[in-house]
Design brief:
Blueprint lengths: L1 H12 L4 E4 L4 H14 L3 E7 L5 H14 L2 E6 L13 H20 L3 E3 L13 H8 L4 H4 L4 H10 L25 H16 L6 E5 L2 E5 L2 H8 L4 H10 L4 E4 L12 H4 L2
Helix pairs in contact: 1-2, 4-5
């Protein structure tokens, strides 16, 4: 693991300067930290703020970049019209548009390279957005160094990064069925619902939106805790106050692949 860590530093040192696509997640935080340690002010984190990124994630990114000490900027990006109806190829379309914009920002600011936080484990999953990264020449130093998610978490912990055990998240579009128009109100409902559940101590949470119904996905080992939570009535009341007609708990628990189920069942 530490050999890979040293290799990562060598890879980053080979860049004249670097823009890190920074979400504030485990991988991009680790990448920005090492980039800052190696390149100093020749590294900068850029966070794209879009209507389908949770507002609390943007706030998190600001705080985490401040903890690292690295330069950091927020770039506001409007809806990408091609993904308004949540097409199956949305990840490719989104990544291509956002990273094209980051390349433009890098050029304008005089930075030579744009990188993001893909790791070895990401190559084992269905990630159509990676195709766009390859087409645009976006660097993936964590992957190039052969680092896995587990190793990145362990190294992050050793470096004192607060994100070392942070759950993985994804854009809010993954909470909605494919090939359905994304309503702005529904998007905000999901955003506020997940922020609320995180505040209640359910950090690894997905609130899937299905025709006005909130389908909560949490790890199966936490399901019984939620069912027996004395705040359950208040939790349901709050989520319904956001506009959900019903609040349900998915008994299969949180699973990354559930976003793909709508390809088969249409919900």
């Amino acid at each position: 693991m530490y050999k890979k860590y040293e290799q990562l530093k060598e890879i980053i040192a080979s860049y004249e300067s670097l823009v890190v696509a920074f979400s504030g997640g485990v991988d991009s935080t680790f990448l920005l930290k090492i980039a800052y340690d190696v390149l100093g002010d020749k590294a900068i984190g850029i966070t794209a703020s879009t209507p389908y990124i949770a507002t609390w994630e943007i706030d998190d990114a600001i705080c985490i970049a401040r903890e690292i000490g690295a330069k950091h900027e927020i770039v506001q990006k409007p809806w990408i019209e091609a993904i308004r109806n949540n097409p199956k190829e949305r990840c490719y379309l989104c990544k291509h548009a956002l990273f094209s914009s980051l390349l433009d920002v890098a050029h304008q600011k005089g930075f030579s390279v744009v990188a993001e936080g893909s790791n070895v484990d990401d190559t084992k999953e269905h990630r159509p957005g990676r195709v766009a990264l390859g087409e645009l020449g976006i660097k993936t130093p964590l992957l190039d160094a052969g680092l896995t998610k587990e190793e990145i978490r362990a190294l992050s912990n050793a470096l004192g990064l607060s994100t070392w055990d942070k759950p993985s998240y994804a854009c809010l579009l993954t909470r909605f069925p494919y090939d359905k128009h994304i309503d702005e109100k529904a998007l905000r409902m999901v955003d506020h619902a997940e922020a609320y559940m995180i505040d209640q101590g359910y950090g690894n949470i997905r609130v899937r939106y299905v025709e006005g119904l909130a389908r909560l996905e949490i790890p199966m080992e936490h399901s019984l805790h939620l069912i027996n939570d004395k705040r359950l009535g208040d939790i349901c009341s709050y989520l319904k106050s956001l506009g959900f007609s019903y609040v349900t708990l998915d008994l299969e628990g949180y699973r990354h692949a559930s976003v793909m189920e709508s390809l088969n069942v249409g919900v």
